[in-house]
Amino acid sequence: MQRNFPLVLTALLAGVTPLLAQQGPPRDNPYDVIGKVFQPFWSVLLSDSRSPNKAAVLTLVISEVSGRLPSQMVGATLSAAVEFPDKVKLTAPVLGEDITVCRVGNEVWAVPGAKVEYLLNQFKVKPQPIKKKNTPLYLPITAQQAVFLPAIFSIKRADVAEMDTLNGEELRVITAGLMPELAKSVKAENFQARMWVAPGYLPRRFDIVQSDFTATVDVVGLKFSPTLPASTWAPPEGATDIYRTHADMLDAVLYVVMNSLKMNEGDQPWLNAK
Question: Which of 70, 82, 115 shows the shortest CA–CA distance to 213?
Answer without folding.
Answer: 70
